Amino acid sequence: MGVRLIDVEPRPDVFAAVMATGIVSVSGADHRYPWISDTLDGVALLAFVVIVVLVLRRVGRVGFPYPLSDIDVVVRLFTFVAACAVLGARFQAHPVAICTMTALAWLAWILLMPLTIRGTRAQGGAGSRDQARGVWELVSVATSSLAIVTAHLAMIWRDGALFVIGLATWLLAIGLYGVITWLIVWRAAVAPTADLWQPDSWILMGGLAIATLAGDRLHFAALTIVTKDWVLTAVRSVTVATWVVATLWIPPLVYATVRHLRVRFTGAWWAMVFPVGMYSATTSAMTTETRWQPFQTLSTVAFWIAFASWLLVASAAVVAFRHARSR
């Protein structure tokens, strides 16, 4: 019997497809390609609704389908947080949409963070090191995404308290990135295994790219709320630093991708599309900040790479589903 869409069991990181589609849409809007941006908007929103329905149906049949005692599963569930935030940022012109998505993102984050802390404490330092991989950076990515939508709300309402919350969330995201990256590097140095590199290792770059975009949004929020000059300078300096380090990640990740390239489709490839799209959106924001034209050129190149990657991964996903149905 063929597989029906309604019978598909969603993976814990299934919302990575929404993240990737949403951020490529954002980048398309930045570069004034409305036909691409609007189409991907619709795809991202439709995918989000369909996936939520599939998950809720699964919950109704068998209960919550994901083992929350497994730290690797918990970190993948942060794709839901980031997907909500990306959609919220994309529809920021609609207050109800951004408020709803921000509330969902914060609620999920508040539920998942204690589970993440409990899981890492149970593993211990060496245990966490042996499991750490690029996908774990989703914890930092999701936290930065919360800083972005919170900064948007701070700008909309000119709310200093929301700005402080967004700023604290951003700093936490950068701190989480540092801890997780240290675990991954420790593993690579001490206990490397064949599965250490996966397409989702690109989140090592994406984690800093989204932190850069969060810093950019917080800088704009600070200008709106008229924050002290030293805060503006500090936010801008950290934002530039995160962009530089994100850029430095690209050559080794390209090398690893070429060396370990696999044709077979897995959901992890969505987690590679997202960082490239995020890098394009972030670099476009840097263009606005600095007025430096090379940033715009680099951002445009990154956008077309991200869009081409999205087309390839989306096509592979459709083919994989059709093969599953034919079996």
Poorly predicted runs are none
Q: How would a textbook summarize the main sheet?
A: none
- Specify Rg, calculated over alpha carbons: 19 Å
Helical residues, percent: over 70%
Instruction: Decide which structural class fits the backbone.
Output: mainly alpha
Q: What's the helix count?
A: 10
Q: What is the average of the pLDDT values?
A: 89
Domains, number: 1
Q: What amount of the residues lies in strands?
A: under 5%
- Per CATH, what is the topology? Glycosyltransferase
**What string, H for helix and E for strand, traces the elements in order?**
HHHHHHHHHH
Anisotropy-based shape? globular
Explain this structure:
It is a single chain. The protein is mainly alpha-helical and 327 residues long. The protein has a single domain (5-316), classed as Glycosyltransferase. It has ten helices and no strands. It has helices at residues 16-30, 34-62, 71-90, 95-131, 138-157, 160-190, 203-225, 229-259, 270-290, 293-326. The protein is globular. 44% of the residues are buried. The mean pLDDT is 89.
